[in-house]
Design brief:
The complex is a heterodimer. By secondary structure, chain A is mainly alpha-helical. Chain A is 78% helix and 0% strand. Chain A starts with a helix and ends with a helix. Helices cover 76% and strands 0% of the residues of chain B. In chain B, helix 4 crosses helix 6 (123-148), helix 6 (123-148) crosses helix 8 (164-193) and helix 8 packs antiparallel against helix 11 (223-246). The longest helix of chain B is centred in the N-terminal third of the chain and has 34 residues, at 49-82. The chains are: A mainly alpha, B mainly alpha.
Chain lengths: 264, 254
């Protein structure tokens, strides 16, 4: 093709319209002062004060204890969910690694199946199994939603571990557990790190699980965003929460890759 | 340890099994059917205009999403796999960004943009939003498939006088066709199942099936929701199986 650049045009247009513009609008929206909800107002004055510049939303987020608790709970949930997801994901990934070729395909399909079914169907089922709303159903729901990604990422990394190395270690007298800790686990670390980053990002921005399976005590930042935008019609605060969330997550992801490059 | 892995797998699949079973319950509550099975919830689904409209909206938006995202991803993967770009990694990172961005952030930003344009309340606005999520996935699959195509075949066609377009049309495209069909189905499935962006962008006239299920899940749960969920499952499952079939590893490739 004469101009390969032209081939990138559709994706670039979609990206500008569907990713960059929304993010820029979000940033600008977070810097308006709050709209006037009372009375007969035009839509834009309802959601925000056009033309205004204000840090009031950020000040609110950083000073009110409610938002401190919100961020604290979101971090705690992300920590618990990530730990369990990695544990179960590794177990499943290892089962895929050790399966016969035919078993591998079957296992991968079964693991991926829930990801191709509707998330609401899935949450609905989780609700029936783990009972009414609370901390346990939220954790169970989020873990089950994320385990397939972790398992498949770790399985892909394990596939690259040559099995004869493990056999060699066993032959030289290592116990099964010893060979696992000193050979299999270190060699599969890239997959574990990738799965960790993805799981932290997705669990910290989790919306559907906490919203559908939790009580208000289990609501996360993402749930609060939806609440602010749809119920309180406070678009500026919702946008500011998003900006802080993206900032924290982006910083975490950057720090992780930086530390990995530095020390691994 | 192995049994623990299988336990996780069972837990992963159990919610789906439960939902399917409950959709056949004769009870008005979420109970497993014991000795009686009934199709009453399915009958109720198809006799309600709300659900039927939602099904129609879902199908329109899913088709539009596939029509937008698959050609976009195909063009992008052709460019990035076959040609050298200085900012190639940056392009890829940008392209994959929507996958790791918090869905609510993307949704809130899109709402702020679309709310004040004529696109508000159109099927196209939802299809564009879904395409933002479907294109990166389609790109990843197509990239893998294009990398497997033997470059010598393309070079031979060029040597025999084919134009670059003819090479693409008669050599490359037929070779990656299974992947193109598979990502078309992925795009349909992603759109049919998407809820977070839909929740922010859908209006009364563009409510999809998941959007109609949504309030029922929180407030008035009846087995009708299970039936609606199973109908979504029935729409997506054959697509998944077909996609898996088209993407199966074949001898003779490479």
């Amino acid at each position: 093709m004469r101009s390969p650049r032209l081939l990138l045009a559709p994706a670039a247009l979609l990206w500008l319209a569907g990713v960059l513009t929304p993010l820029l609008f979000l940033l600008r929206m977070s810097l308006y002062s709050r709209g006037n909800v009372s009375g007969e107002k035009a839509l834009d004055t309802l959601f925000y004060q056009p033309g205004s510049w204000s840090l009031e939303s950020f000040i609110k987020i950083f000073t009110e204890p409610f938002y401190h608790r919100l961020f604290g709970f979101t971090a705690l949930l992300a920590l618990v969910v990530t730990t369990l997801t990695l544990l179960f994901g590794y177990l499943l990934g290892y089962a895929v690694y050790r399966a016969t070729p035919r078993g591998k395909i079957a296992l991968v399909l079964l693991i991926a199946l829930p990801k191709f079914t509707n998330i609401l169907v899935f949450v609905f089922g989780v609700k029936m199994i783990f009972g009414a709303s609370g901390f346990a159903p939220v954790v169970a729901g989020e873990v089950l939603l994320l385990v397939p990604y972790a398992a498949l990422t770790i399985a892909a990394a394990l596939e690259a571990v040559p099995y004869h190395m493990i056999e060699a270690a066993r032959g030289l007298g290592a116990s099964a557990a010893g060979a696992f800790w000193r050979i299999t686990l270190p060699l599969s670390m890239p997959g574990v790190v990738a799965a960790t980053v993805l799981t932290v990002l997705w669990s910290a921005s989790g919306f559907l699980g906490p919203y559908l399976l939790g009580q208000p005590a289990q609501y996360t930042i993402a749930v609060e965003v939806e609440r602010q935008m749809h119920q309180d019609l406070n678009w500026t605060l919702g946008a500011a929460l998003n900006v802080v969330l993206i900032g924290v997550l982006g910083g975490t992801a950057y720090l992780t890759t930086f530390l990995r490059r530095r020390f691994a | 340890m192995k049994w623990l892995a299988y336990l996780v797998l069972v837990l992963l699949l159990l919610p789906l099994v439960f939902t399917i079973l409950v959709s056949f319950t004769p009870s008005r509550y979420l109970e497993l059917p014991r000795d009686q099975w009934t199709l009453q919830w399915y009958r109720q689904f198809f006799s309600s205009t709300v659900w039927e409209q939602a099904l129609g909206n879902s199908l329109i938006i899913a088709s539009l999403t596939a029509a937008l995202s698959v050609p976009t991803a195909l063009a992008t993967s052709m460019a990035l796999v076959r040609y050298h770009f200085r900012w190639r990694t940056a392009w890829e990172m940008a392209l994959l960004l929507p996958v790791v961005l918090p869905a609510v952030a993307l949704a809130a930003g899109m709402l702020a943009v679309v709310r004040f344009t004529p696109l508000w309340g159109s099927h196209l606005s939802l299809a564009l939003a879904h395409s933002v999520l479907a294109t990166p996935v389609a790109y990843l699959v197509l990239r893998a498939s294009l990398k497997q195509v033997d470059r010598n075949l393309e070079a031979a066609a060029r040597g025999l006088g084919a134009s670059p377009w003819q090479v693409f049309r008669f050599v490359t495209l037929p070779l990656v066709m299974p992947a193109v069909l598979a990502v078309t189905l992925f795009a349909l499935v992603i759109s049919l199942n998407e809820i977070t962006l839909t929740l922010f962008l859908a209006t009364r006239y563009t409510e999809t099936l998941p959007r109609v299920i949504w309030p029922n899940l929180r407030f008035a749960i009846t087995p009708l929701v299970a039936a609606a969920s199973v109908i979504l499952l029935v729409l997506t499952l054959p697509a998944l199986i077909a996609a898996g079939w088209w993407l199966r590893p074949r001898r003779g490739n490479r």
